[in-house]
Amino acid sequence: MIVCAAAALGAGVPCVPELIAQAQAAWSKRDAALTVDRLSEALVLARKQAPLRIRAALAADQIHGLGVYVPAKGGVLKGRRLQLYVEIENYGAEQIDDHARVRLELSGAFSVEEAGGKKVLGNKTLGEQVYETRAPVGIAYLGADLDLGEDFAPGIYHVEVKVKDLVTSKAAVQDVVFVVR
Fold first, then answer.
1. What are phi and psi of 133, to 5 degrees?
2. φ, ψ for residue 36, nearest 5 deg
3. I want to staple 55 with a disulfide (CB 3.0 to 4.6 A). Which of 43, 77, 82, 87 is the partner?
């Protein structure tokens, strides 16, 4: 049984269950192209309802693009430079004519491990990413390159990474551990 919102049905817009049913029918006929098309359409609609999610957040030695990075081995930084790689999914986009604008903000709450717990060091806005796209993939990455300077003595640090979708106001948080030697 397929259940769709009345507004979607009235507008002739297929809903997620209907698209999945169409994908299953296409797959039973071995029509892989149509199957992928319908599943992609269903995913775009489902992402609008899903919470913003951080898929990966880590200290990296190199960042080249979405999913293309070299993790810092054991979270150990090379010198006092933190390259933070954050991969997210399910963000929103503002429709502008034939394309969409994505607006994401990255911030972090820094702390250091000390005997007896963590010592809070403070919060920092790490940047904003705004771009326009015609491909509604729903997955993006943010990179932040931070020179920690001498303020970060050798030790184990945490940055509670927060990504805020400035279009939908959704937010997601994840802890990243890194080591300064």
1. -145, 155
2. -65, -40
3. 87
